[in-house]
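ingest -> fold -> write
write: protein_1
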Amino acid sequence: ADAGFKGPDQVTPLHLISSRQQYRMAALLIDLGAAVDAQDVNEHMPLQMVDSEETHARMKNVFENAAIVASGECGKVCDFCFVAIDGKKRCARCKKRYYCTAEHQKADWPDHKKECAKLASS
């Protein structure tokens, strides 16, 4: 697959993934060579496709730490906001998700609880 593919209106896969808040997929696309500065016909770059300040901040961290996020190296980035971390704070149950703060662990729980038990048993 071509990470730099442009479809109708010059929209790239990274534009679509960014607008859907698919953080890990965005990291994979960037790691595969997707251009973070590609513009669509309305001159929007992928990072401009997000709809809130919080989402923008998280996606910006993904763009900056894409290689680490895409590699799946545990403990290198917060699994909620994707900022680089020291890897010392992690989920006590599965020990596979890492966070920069207790607040981010709580905020990630609605998504993480779906996989936590499976991760703990693997």
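write: protein_2
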Amino acid sequence: RMITCHSPLLPQSVKMVLMSALANALRNIVNAEKRGKRQVIIRPSSKVIVKFLETMMKHGYIGEFEIVDDRRAGKIVIELTGRVNKCGVISPRFDIALDEIEQWVTDLLPSRLFGYLVLTTDQGIMDHEEARRKHTGGKILGFFY
């Protein structure tokens, strides 16, 4: 015998909840790079994602990107160059003092010669080298190499 349950408490369609737009965006970039894609579309867009991408573009890890305003959350079309091996989010956003940056670099990046940590500081979102030059710490957003 089969027992079917039609309870009003159980939803018929389960919706996925987007926890972190930045984590989702970076995962999409890595997956597209692994598949050898030339470009990737990311949605939703946010100011933090745009600043993170600007930091990646400044160091040549991605090509140009275009923000598409669809009157909703927005989309970003990114040209890929094939240089991103890995990028990710650090959650929770730990506080990093100036003298702790070196330890985080050692823990997260494969080499001191390449790769960047992205920090959010009181002077804006920047990579760890710029934060060192400006003599400021902040909270860690993520990394890429």
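write: annotation protein_2
The CA atoms of residues 105 and 111 lie 8 Å apart.
The radius of gyration is 19 Å.
pipeline exit 0
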